[in-house]
Each structure stands twice: as structure tokens, then as C-alpha cells.
Amino acid sequence: MIRSLPDLSAAGVVLSLLLLSGLPGCGGGEKPLPPRQGRVNDYSAVLTEPAAAALEKSLERYEGETCHQIVVVIIPSLDEEGIGDFSSRVMADWGIGHPLLENGILLTISLEEGAARIDAGPGIEDIVTSGRAQEILHGEMFPLFGKNRIGEGVARGVEALMEEGRKVSFAPELRPPVCRAPE
Q: What is the pLDDT of residue 9?
């Protein structure tokens, strides 16, 4: 499903955010992935520094609370690579989620192509289903992106993802060793 949105850039450049499926074969050679900076990776500088820092802190607390990991990546362009292919490479290369639990969630946004996608690892995809991911994109994020409130849209989408993930978490005493805080 494709949905275009109104003007998003402060400079008046038209950017539409679309939900794309990342069709196979839509892209050239794979360019190297950018290095992971943390839980919030804004290579397009669309988030203010305070907003990115607050989101990073919120995701850190969430991971400590639930053992699930959410990572955000915002890039200027996919360089002709499908968003699905790019997101899959990021999930694998960056090791999002705990290896034994495969409970990572990746929110990918590419500005030039106007693409956004939510991927959930096998250990959490029954909670953050593809249907729920689309609801979050279309209901929580895209309306704010359409009002040029990208940072707020990202924060709202992340909050909705955290809410879903909180439906299944481990009590501290039942957490697998990978999720336990050092004593």
C-alpha cells in the first residue's frame, strides 16, 4: 500500500513518506551500511539533538524494563535499494535484539524515497505484527509527518511500539541471563 503525504521539509522541498514493501530486485549494488550509533541513528539530522537524546534514553529504559530492543534509523536515501532489503541488512548486521531471543524491532525511515518500515524479529513478531506495524505507521506517524512534525511522529511511533512490546516482558527474576542487569 502506498500513501503519499504533503510537504515535509522546512526548506519547502516536497518529501512524501510512503509505506513501501522493498520489492526484490529494486536496487543496485549494496552500499556499506552506516555504523550503528546507538538506539537512535539519525543520519539525516531531522531530529533535534535534545529529541534524539530523549528518545535514546527512553529506549534504553524500555530495554531495561522489557528486555526487548528497539532501534531507529533515519537515512537520507536508500540509493535505489529497496527499503525491505536495506532494513533486513541493518537487522542482521547491527544485531538488533538479543541473539537468543531475536526480539529486536527496527524502525527505518528514508527521506529521499519517502519510505518507512517497521521490522520485528522472530521473537517479537507475534506481538508487533505486520498489521500492527502498518497501523502504527499510518495512524501514529504519517499524520504527524504530513504536518512536518517528523520528530514528534518518530517519538509517537516508538511509544506505540514500546506499548506493544510491554504486552510481553520478563519478570526480573525470570529473565534469561542475557537480559539481567549486572549485579
A: 33
Q: What is the DSSP string of 67-88?
A: S-EEEEEEES--TT--HHHHHH
Residue 59 lies in a domain: yes
Parallel, antiparallel or unpaired: strands 40-42 and 18-19: unpaired
10 is a domain residue: no
Going from the C-alpha of 133 to that of each of 44, 138, 172, the distances in angstroms are 23, 9, 27
Which run of H or of E encompasses 41? strand 40-42
Q: Which pTM was predicted?
A: 0.80
Q: Domains in the chain: how many in total?
A: 1
Q: Report pLDDT digits (tens) over 98-149.
A: 888 899 999 999 988 888 999 999 999 999 999 999 999 999 999 998 898 9
Residue 58's CATH number: 3.10.310.50
Write out the three cell numbers for 178. Answer: 542475557
- Listed in sequence order, the DSSP H helices in 67-170 are 83-94, 130-135, 142-145, 150-165
Residue 19 lies in a domain: no
16 domain-assigned: no
Q: Phi-psi category of 11—alpha, beta or left, where left has phi over 0 and alpha has psi -120 to 50?
A: alpha
| Range(s) of the domain holding residue 120 | 37-168
